[in-house]
């Protein structure tokens, strides 16, 4: 059984917020798509669809959150659900994303695990790597943004317009904001 702190750290809350922002962007985009566009195959071998990338993101959140719900310290991203319905029907995926947002939000006020172990396959063996909830939340943000950047490229090919911030890591958005503020201050000083 996982030993638990009474409250998650402020770092956990900040990392949850980053994940929530990414998931909300994704949910908004997915909720506006038709099944035809969502399932449209891209690439030389037709392996890429918007839906497959969305499902892949969802699978990773489910792997972490389901493990935590069961009180497990061991996180295994390799053995994911891979629910084909999530990659075929955008409204189902959007609903699932909203549920993930609710589950993540509840983490901020609920108990948090002291430590986690990540299972990582290596050829014929499996490594057990020390981790934490904060580290896994940071991973999920980066992993989601990576796939959202691919989704943005596929969406562009399908003629779908997305906001400039879609698929951009929060650290890059913060950099853009700092740069914009610095440029505005600089232009005021020179005026």
UniProtKB/TrEMBL annotation:
Which InterPro entries is this protein grouped with? Answer: DinB/YfiT-like (IPR034660)
Query: Which PANTHER family does the protein's record reference?
Result: DINB-LIKE DOMAIN-CONTAINING PROTEIN, PTHR39473
This protein's name: Putative damage-inducible protein DinB
Starting at the broadest rank, the lineage of the source organism is: Bacteria, Pseudomonadati, Pseudomonadota, Gammaproteobacteria, Oceanospirillales
